[in-house]
Design brief:
This protein is an alpha+beta fold and about 325 residues long. It folds into 2 domains: about 180 residues, no CATH class; about 90 residues, no CATH class. Helix content is about 25%, strand content about 25%. The strands form 7 sheets. Strands 2, 7, 8 and 9 form a 4-stranded mixed sheet that branches. Helix 2 crosses helix 3, helix 2 crosses helix 5 and helix 3 crosses helix 5. The chain is globular and about 55 Å long. The termini are close together.
Length: about 325
């Protein structure tokens, strides 16, 4: 499992057990005896004491404050229970056990990095370590909700497969230079992952472990390569609120529907222009406006339709989930 996860994100990292020193406003260690003591330097944090040689890590459980977007409630969960719900929501439970283990480590590391003292918790819901929106933090499902998306005859076995992946990796996270990594992931890269700095273009995101790497293992994903057709009227409707893009819709073919301004080394569209002079849009903006599965696309116009040829599903940074399953 360790080799699988490290290969999928493209760099040798360190797999470690969570240290007992982590605590903060959004999560705490729960004492086995039920009598936690304040942890110095961490407001609201509590700890249960030392880990044991038998389990290789702390003997207590971390509690997380999770904002459940579906219900609007703040829910307290043990970290390992939270990780189970993330896997149920984020990865097909039919995947290879080693891929499920890799997802468990990624989900746990993401939670540690986001909810720990340096992470600041969920940016959209103060007081919560994380929320259940995949566009903000990580998706999460309770067992009963997860059952609804699976065949009834397989639900019990799927829940057990997920639980086993969490048990097998309990307390394990990935670090780089002694710090938890930004453990992002996506469904399908389409053959090559994206570098974080290319996509997000922000200072401090050029992580050595989030570079673009070849991935020949996600070919069986239904999203690896696909074509999506939009009626030109639907294309116009998608852009109806984009005033600076409207001239292209009435130009009678004088302006291109879309024009690529800049691509990343992996082939994803970083910057596009709609119309001329037109407004510049990031690839992520165009993806959102048109409902495309990724920013790795090109197009052609045929018979009153704009047909998009798309590779992959998701932002493309970090672990490719279908790639992890294929490699396993």
């Amino acid at each position: 499992m360790k080799f699988l996860l490290l290969y999928c994100i493209g760099l040798s990292l360190v797999l470690v057990f969570l240290p007992a020193a982590i605590a903060g406003d959004c999560w705490v260690w729960e004492g086995e005896a039920g009598t936690p003591a304040d942890l110095p330097g961490a407001p609201g944090g509590t700890t249960a004491g030392e880990g044991t040689e038998a389990d290789g890590g702390p003997s207590g459980d971390i509690l997380l404050q999770i904002y459940v977007v579906q219900t609007g409630e703040l829910k307290e969960l043990e970290l390992e229970d939270y990780v189970r719900g993330v896997i149920a929501a984020e990865m097909p439970a039919s995947f290879h056990p080693e891929a499920l283990k890799a997802q468990a480590v990624a989900a746990r590391t993401y939670a540690w990095q986001r909810a720990g003292p340096e992470g600041g918790g969920c940016p959209n819901h103060p007081g919560a370590a994380l929320c259940t929106a995949s566009t903000c933090c990580q998706a999460w499902l309770e067992d009963e909700e997860a059952r609804k998306k699976w065949p009834a005859a397989k639900a019990d076995s799927y829940l057990e497969r997920i639980a086993e992946a969490v048990r097998a990796t309990r307390g394990q996270v990935l670090t780089y230079d002694g710090e938890p990594i930004t453990a992002v992931y996506h469904s399908t890269c389409g053959g090559k992952t994206e570098a974080a700095a290319e996509l997000w273009g922000e200072s401090g995101t050029d992580y050595p472990y989030l570079q673009s790497v070849d991935c020949p293992y996600c070919k069986r994903s239904p999203s690896c390569r696909q074509e999506l057709a939009l009626e030109l009227s639907a294309y116009a409707a998608a852009l109806q609120d984009e005033k600076e893009a409207r001239p292209v819709l009435a130009a009678g073919g004088d302006y291109p529907l879309l024009e690529i301004v800049r691509k990343s080394a992996s082939g994803r569209n970083l910057l596009l222009r709609i119309g001329k002079p037109g407004r510049l849009y990031s690839g992520s903006e165009v993806r959102r406006l048109l409902g495309l599965p990724s920013t790795h696309f090109h197009w052609r116009v045929e018979g009153g339709k704009i047909i998009f040829s798309v590779r992959g599903n998701g932002h493309g940074v970090g672990m490719c989930q279908y790639g992890a399953d294929g490699l396993a």
